UniProtKB/TrEMBL annotation:
Keywords: Glycosidase, Hydrolase, Signal. It comes from the Eukaryota. GO terms for biological process: carbohydrate metabolic process. Residues 337-534 form the Beta-xylosidase C-terminal Concanavalin A-like domain. The keyword Glycosyltransferase does not apply. This is Beta-xylosidase C-terminal Concanavalin A-like domain-containing protein.
Length: 546
């Protein structure tokens, strides 16, 4: 999870970009080949596995809530979020975004692990948060009896261990013994009690000569494997005939070129086998400003028992044969959400834990009502900002707001959210409402607020009685991680129901730095600067490529 600066320098110096055209249909077709990245969204620190016909994928989410999304796929290529392993960040009160000095940016859910256990039909999530390890389980899943399909996700905290399993990988052995591989540089294996509530033993199994971390533990053909990253350039494989070693090491990939230009090297991933025993390695690429996005490649097993990545032109392929031919499918990421269900879809995550008394999603539809939850002039301290991943390389988020119940002093709108942020929004002053574009919101390197933003452009003052305003954030997250280019996002509004659009302000230059970890997101916000009581309704949100 921690990047080594040296590794990053290596990444930017050593990698020669190839100008591969990117073709990424929103839902990849049932063609015989798939394209990398498999899902152009920020889903880092992945853990991937299969239950029956269904592949599952877990990723890290820092201070976004709920945390640790669970994605589902039938072909290892098309993914959709179906759950979150951590329903609420209950680790400390700062996860509630209490004040400008009591918040949890960049803390929370780092590299963690999700696996399914056959013996009790339960999904287990495990992760270290600020010194302690938390185990969440979803019991009675039904997946074992139903070819991998889950009847009912039912996550709850099972255990808190007073020890950090840093960057851990969970593994259930054939005889159901529970192991966790973890650590930074000094890689350890712990055996847990069979209920995963306590540690039985733990020992060092491999000491790296350089920083290694991000463990994933497996057993394939009778051998034990621990995959680790040498951040941010390489993936190593440790192999042993017993869980506690001794382990021998080989490099799976080191500074491998492709499949995306101006991104880092694919690393920190895991492996998964299909039903017909074809194996794949999935890692992520640092693809800022968009975050860290997953890429996949087949592996074969060498006669020495170590995996070998299938390369194309000595690099990571932009396309490979589709892992699983199946007619089963999942919804693609380009969709409109009109909030017609009483719970939010798993596409959404709040910035920190929400104040649940300040929003409602009526089952009857009509949109999500966002009441102001904080009095502040600082978006980074306002509760109940609702975020959505951007789809790369270029997509826009269209937010349809009803602003008729905004109160004097309220600020609501559509943000491009990160540590350096901008938005288009409505400032309500007295009985008048004007549209503004605000940029230059930023955090310091200790994640305190540096700037609450500057009004860069002012649009029309809306006639009193205006109910609907449509806002659009049009983002370009084409990777610019090592290329130095600045990608720009533009902000637009429509006051005629989305027929005609007007850009407000200039293009906003996005930061390509990695230190905040999470890439840019679309976000809806509503906060007060004078007093609580006002509200907006987000009637719909649409994600679409451009
Ligand atoms: C949900 O999980 C809890 C805690 O593990 C368990 O007691 C309960 O039976 C589960 N409910 C269902 C419907 O699976
Ligand atoms: C499970 O398998 C491991 C690896 O072979 C072994 O060390 C351990 O003793 C076994 N546990 C039980 C309960 O059989
Ligand atoms: C951005 O915010 C900083 C900190 O408040 C301020 O010093 C700077 O002048 C602002 N820049 C612009 C272009 O408004």
């Amino acid at each position: 999870m921690h990047f080594s600066i040296l590794g990053l320098l290596g990444a930017s110096l050593a990698w020669t970009a190839s100008a591969t055209p990117i073709v990424q249909p929103e839902l990849q077709s049932r063609a015989t080949n798939f394209n990398n990245p498999v899902l152009w969204q920020d889903h880092p620190d992945l853990d991937v596995f299969r239950v029956g016909d269904v592949f599952y994928y877990s990723s890290s989410t820092f201070a976004f809530s709920p945390g640790a999304p669970v994605l589902k796929s039938y072909d290892l290529v098309n993914w959709t979020p179906v759950s979150h392993s951590v329903p609420r960040l209950d680790f400390a009160s700062k996860y509630n975004l209490n004040s400008a000095t009591d918040r949890a940016y960049v803390k929370g859910i780092w590299a963690s692990s999700l696996q399914y256990r056959k013996s009790d039909d339960t999904f287990y999530w495990i992760g270290c948060i600020e010194g302690k390890t938390y185990v969440y389980t979803s019991t009675n899943s039904g997946a074992g009896a139903n070819n991998g399909e889950v009847n009912n996700w039912n996550w709850s905290l099972r255990a808190t261990l007073n020890k950090c399993y840093y960057d851990c990988g969970l593994f259930f052995d054939d005889n159901d013994t529970v192991y966790v591989a973890y650590g930074n540089t000094d890689i350890q294996v712990a055996q847990l009690s069979s209920d995963a509530r306590s540690e039985v033993r733990s020992q060092s199994v491999y000491k790296g000569s350089v920083t290694i971390e991000g463990s994933r533990m497996y057993k394939v053909n009778g051998n034990y494997y621990i995959f680790v990253t040498r951040p941010a350039n390489e993936e190593w494989v440790l192999k042993a005939s017993s869980p506690f070693g001794p382990y021998t090491q080989r490099v799976l990939v080191a500074s491998i070129s492709g499949p995306l230009s101006n991104a880092g090297f694919a690393h920190q991933g895991g492996i998964v086998g299909t039903k017909d025993n074809k194996w794949y390695y999935m890692g992520f690429m640092d693809a800022y400003p968009g975050g860290r996005i997953p890429v996949s490649a087949p592996i074969t097993w060498g006669s020495d028992g170590f995996p070998v990545l299938t390369k194309v032109n000595n690099g990571w392929g932009q396309t490979y044969p589709t892992p699983v031919e199946t007619s089963k499918t999942v919804p693609g990421p380009e969709r409109e959400d009109s909030f017609t269900s009483s719970s939010l879809s798993h596409e959404w995550e709040w910035n920190h834990n929400p104040d649940t008394s300040k929003f409602t999603v009526p089952a009857s539809g009509g949109g999500i009502q966002l009441s102001t939850a904080t009095v502040t002039n600082d978006l980074f301290t306002a509760r109940n900002t609702l975020t959505h991943r951007i789809l790369g390389p270029k997509s826009h988020g269209t937010f349809r707001f009803d602003i008729s119940k905004m109160a004097d002093g309220d600020r609501a709108g559509a943000a491009l959210f990160r540590d350096v942020a901008a938005y288009i929004g409505i400032y309500k002053e007295g009985s008048s409402a004007r549209i503004v574009m605000v940029n230059n919101l930023s955090l310091n390197s200790d994640w305190s607020t540096k700037s609450t933003g500057t009004i860069a452009a002012t649009g029309p003052t809306l006639p009193s009685g205006t109910a609907e305003v449509w806002l659009r954030v049009q983002a370009d997250i084409t990777p610019a991680f090592s290329g130095g280019a600045t990608r720009t996002t533009t902000f637009l509004y429509s006051v005629d129901g989305g027929n005609s659009w007007t850009q407000l302000g200039g293009g906003f230059g996005m930061t390509n730095t990695w230190q905040f970890f999470t890439g840019y997101r679309f976000a809806a916000f509503n906060h007060a600067t004078k007093s609580l009581g006002g509200s907006v309704v987000l009637k719909s949100f649409a994600l679409k490529k451009w």
